Every structure is written in C-alpha cells, then in structure tokens.
Amino acid sequence: MADELMIEAEGLEKRYGSTHALAGVDFSVPAGTILGLLGPNGAGKTTAVRILTTLALPDAGRGTVAGFDVVKQPGEVRRHIGVAAQDATLDPLLTGRQNLVLVGELSDMGRAASRDRAGELLDQFELADAADRVLKGYSGGMRRRLDLAASLMTRPPVLFLDEPTTGLDPTSRQRVWEAIRELLGEGVTVLLTTQYLEEADALAHRIVVVDHGRVIADGTPTELKEASRSAHLEVTLTEPHPDAVAAVAPLVAGQVHVLGDGRRLSAAVDAAPGLATSVVRALDTAGVLVDNIEVRQPSLDDVFFSLTGGHIEVDDVEEVVDGAAGVDGEDGDDGRESGDTAAGDGDGHPRLEGARA
Amino acid sequence: MTITTLTPTVRTTGRPRSSGRLFGPVADTWAMTRRNLVHISREPMQLSDVTIQPLLFTVLFVFIFGGAIPIPGGGSYVDFLLAGILALNLVTSTMGTAVGLSTDLHEGMIDRFRTLPMWRSAVLVGRSMADLLTSFLCALIVGVTGLAVGWRPGANYVSIVGGFALVLFFAYAVSWVAACVGLNSKSPESAASFGFIVLFPMTFVSNAMVPTQHMPGWLQAIATWNPVSAVVAGTRVLWGNPNPSGTIKAWPMQHPIEAALIWSVLILAVAGPLAAHFFRRRTTE
After folding, report:
1. Buried b vs exposed e over B197-230: b needs ≥16 C-beta within 10 Å?
2. I want to staple A269 with a disulfide (CB 3.0 to 4.6 A). Which of A117, A233, A287, B152 is the partner?
3. What is the spatial distance between Cα A237 and Cα A292, in angstroms, rounded to a whole number?
4. What's the CATH code of the domain at A167?
5. C-alpha–C-alpha distance, residues B185 and A148, integer Å
6. Are residues A202 and A296 both part of a single domain?
7. Where among A177, A192, A225 does a domain terminate?
C-alpha cells in the first residue's frame, strides 16, 4: 500500500499561446510522502499543479491522482484532493468560518458536519479568535493558514500546496511548516511547490527541480546534493593582494569573486582531493598571505545554480554567497548561521529567479 | 532537516458521496445563493440599486414629470408610471448580475470552486437566484412607494400579482443576458458599462416613462417592438392602470401579455444556454 503512487504525471505538456509552460514533465508521488516541486518563477510549477487539480487541461501527457485520470475523471479527482493555491482563493467578504463551511457544503459534506470540521480546523490553525471576522481584516499569514485549513476540510488523501509560504514572515512560515509536517503524520500525500530551497529541503522526501517547463533533476535532497560535483571555495587573505585572483583562477571551475573589503575570494570548484592544499600552495607561491581557507560541500542552492544557471535575487554579491541555505560558515558577522533569516528578498529568504537572459 | 523517520498511516480513500441530503446541484446552488446574500449584507451599498434607487426614481418621476405629461385616453400619471418604473428598476438592476459574475471570475475564489466536487454551474445559478431574491425586494419597494405617492391599481389581487410576476420574469430573462456580458467582460468595471450602454436606453426608448405617441415615427416603431414596451403594457393591463399603447395597432401592443411572455421565454432560451457555454469556456484552460 505504501508503494502506491498517489500522484503521477507522465509527459505533461501545456502551451499558453506561444509559451511552452510545460514541455513534457514526469514525476510521481508515493502515498504518504511529500514531493517538493522546486523551480524559479515561471518554471511551470503552477501549471503542473493546475493540470493535476483539474483546473487546466494538458495539451499532451497524462496525469492521475489517487488512481483517477485528471482529464477523464475530474469529478473523482476533485473528490480526493485538497488545494491551497498560490493566489488567495477564499471569499474576502465572508468570515473565516463561513469560508470553511462554504467549502464543506460545496464538497457535499452537509451543513452540520461542515460546521464541526470548520471549528476543529480553526482551533488547529489558531484562528479561533478571528473565526467570525470578515477575511478583509486577516493578515497574510492568517489567510494562508485559512487557505490551508480550507484545503483540509474534507480530510482529502491528496494535498496540493502551491507555494504555501511565499510572502510570509519567518514565524508564519514556521507555523505552516509545522502544519504540513503534522499532516504527513496522518498519512496524507502532498505535492508542494516552492521557490525556497530551504523549504523543499526541510519538508520534502523527494525533490523535482523544474525549469523552463522541464524536469532537470529528481531525487532526495541528499541525492541531489551528492549529484552536484561543485563545491565552494572561500579564502580569506591577510590583506588584499593584486595577484591573488590570478593565482587561484586556474584551480577553480568558474569565475573568482572578490568580496567585501577585497580580502575574501569566493569561487565554485570541482571537489577534488587535496584542493585546499593546492590553493594555499598557489597563493603562497604568488606571495599572498592566507588567514583562512574553506572548501564546503554543495548546498541545495549550489545544486540549483549548477542545474539552472539561476541566481538568488539579491543585489549584493556578498549576500549571494552567504545566503546559501544550510551552510556552515565560520564568519559570525554576516548572519550566515541565523537560519532562515540569512539573506534574501525582504522577508528574509533567498528566492530563486531563473536566469532568463 | 529532512524528515526520514515517518511511518505514515496511508490514507488512500476519498470521501464517500453523501446520501440522503439535498440533491447535489440544488444544495450547491443554495450554498452559493446564501454566499451572495451574505455579500450583500456585508456591503449594503450593493443593495442601493434595488432599494434607494427605486424609491428615489418613483418619487422623482411622479413629482417632476407627473404634471407635465398628459396621458392619452386619460388617467393619472402615477397610475401610468408605476409599471414603467418597476420595469426600469428591475431591468437596470440586472447590471448587478453582470458585475457580480465578472467579480466572481476575477477573484481567485473561482479556482477554489473549480477544485471542489460541486456542480459548477451553481456559481452561475446561485448568482442568478440571489439576484432574483433582491429583485423581489426591489418590486416590493416600488409597490409600497407607489402606493404612498398615489398609485392605485384597478384590478383584483391575482391580477396585480400577475403584473409584478410579468416584470420579474422578464427581468430574470434579461439577467441571463447580463450574465453573458459579465462572463465575457475583462473586468467588473467594464461589465458595469452594460447598464449604461444597453439597459438604460432600452428602458427609456419604450412606453415605460412616457406615452410613445409623441415620439418621432422611427423611434416610435422601435419603442413599439421593444420588449420592455410589451412588458410594461402587459403589466398596466393586469393592474388595471391606464395603457395608452393599447391604441397602437402593432401586434405586441394589442397582445402585450402574450408578447411579454414570448419575449421573456425567447430571451431566456437563448441567453441561458449561451451563458452556460460562456461559463464553460471561461473556466476551461
């Protein structure tokens, strides 16, 4: 039973006008697990979710949810899913409770059962105090929690969460994460889309990376990290030196970035035995004094960059490097260790943007 | 951070179809109707076009035009006017259907509805039901205001109710035209323009406010065959109020009740399925 696939996508294709939103996407989600669909904006994540939740028809390919074909048996699919979409899909003029009850009634639960379940979920998501307020007065985090609650009204076995934490502050994000983890304990199968590597890493059993409508990687978070050969080199010099970049350049995979006050060098490298020794030797030969050197294993960010050529959307190169999630840094001054407030887009998170040059 | 130690109790079954409740589409339509009524209670200004407007129009027309417009064949202007003012208010309020549907489709909520195992057309029919209920309120306000300013029907109760029903049925048919407009409009604002571009001219170029006898020949021809004229004339007949159009020889003016019913059924038969078609088209991608 546990090996049963609750969500399957085979060769899904979708065009919107001249845009190939999905160009043949395959993935599957075994029962009781979370799949993280990871990619930059416009990668095709939402399109895939829209097809699997019967909101859009695929131009080619096949999708099944809970064993039902999304095109041929949309009614049965809808009977088995809960959806928390990216846009607010709740009625702003109803109260939180009225929204949940409406969803329940329209799901054929009956009024009394809908009321009971709504009360339960409002308590669970700490929305009981706001339950009878009109949605207009809800904060972004409250709306997301209510959206999640709405998707759970019918206790669906399959859940689609389209960027459930985009735009949320770190505290609200943590609460949504906790809620998702609790669901897993109940045996729900989840397809989660996200632009946050950290989120996929924290929640998903498997990650499918999509870009330009194609799957470019598929594996467990650990497998993906291992699959990427690229490691990261950081060198701190005693003082800036004009020959330092030239000395290191032949040993690294890409460009050498000079950071901060000119004392720090940063570059992607192919992990190789004795790399640190080679770097120190090269710098020593060039007459450069080294204070510190570090070769670190790839984070999911690195994996993502090497796969998509993407970049984190921040305006400072220094933060790009420091913002890598889950990095063991030793400089205490740049907030690298502070978890999900590392670097980012204003709400404290690195956000992926595909390179669209 | 990855969760690896989970031993999920797999849930693979969906919710069983519940039995013994209201027939699915009926229950869904009722739920959607109630939702739309809650909307009105949240934003009472939405109701102004079926509450304040009819009150205002009735009073204004009676006191401003009342003395200036002679009724061919005699009778008081207020007795002549009331059927017309009822048609004006009910027909123009169908604009609300266009705006409401357009709003529904532009909010993310429609996506939520489409992922639920509900009868999809309940979005459409629920809107139409809620608007019909507000139409009843509108008709009541026009009737009461009319009585207050001197309107006196000269017929039995059944006939009077029949007069109200004739206009309500016609307005209901027109609301499906409005639904088609709302389903095709790019925004709620552009849906609202339907009222000013179509509905207001349609009710004014008719016998609703003034006898058509003084209109230029070509305009009179339009007014004679305007469905609104048949509806208003039919209601005047049913209410036992003055109906100067009765002297016009064209068939719809000689048989206004039949003409009003035929128009309403025709409009409904065309606009209803068309709205369903537009709705399917708008909600398929």
Report:
1. ebbeebbebbbbbbbbeebeeeebebbbbbbbbb
2. A233
3. 7
4. 3.40.50.300
5. 31
6. no
7. A225
Q: Which residue has the tokens 């389209």?
A: A162
Task: State residue B235 phi and psi, 5-degree precision.
Answer: -70, -40
What does the pLDDT average to over A94-123? 93
Q: Which domain holds residue A321?
A: 228-353
Q: In chain B, which residue's Cα lies nearest the Cα of A110?
A: B21
Phi, psi of B7 (to 5 degrees): -120, 80
What was the ipTM of the complex prediction?
0.81
Pairing assessment for the beta strands A19-30 and A5-16 based on DSSP bridges: antiparallel
Q: Which residues are bridge partners to A98 per DSSP?
A: none
- Assign B22 a pLDDT band (cuts: 50, 70, 90): low
Contact of A236 with A242, CB cutoff 8 Å: no
Return the residue of B nearest to A93 by Cα: B39
Counting residues of chain B whose pLDDT is more than 90, the rounded percentage is 54
pLDDT band (50, 70, 90) for residue A350:
very low
Helix (H, G, I), strand (E, B) or coil at B17: coil
Closest chain B residue to A52, measured at CA: B115
Cα separation, B122 vs B260, whole angstroms: 28
Among A34, A55, A326, the residue with its CB nearest the CB of B285 is A55
Beta carbons of A317 and A259 less than 8 angstroms apart = yes
- Measured in angstroms, the CA of B10 and the nearest CA of chain A are apart by 4
Q: Give the pLDDT score at B223.
A: 94
Residue numbers of the domain that contains B125: 24-282
Say if B284 is an interface residue toward chain A (CB within 8 Å).
yes
Supply the pTM of this predicted model: 0.75
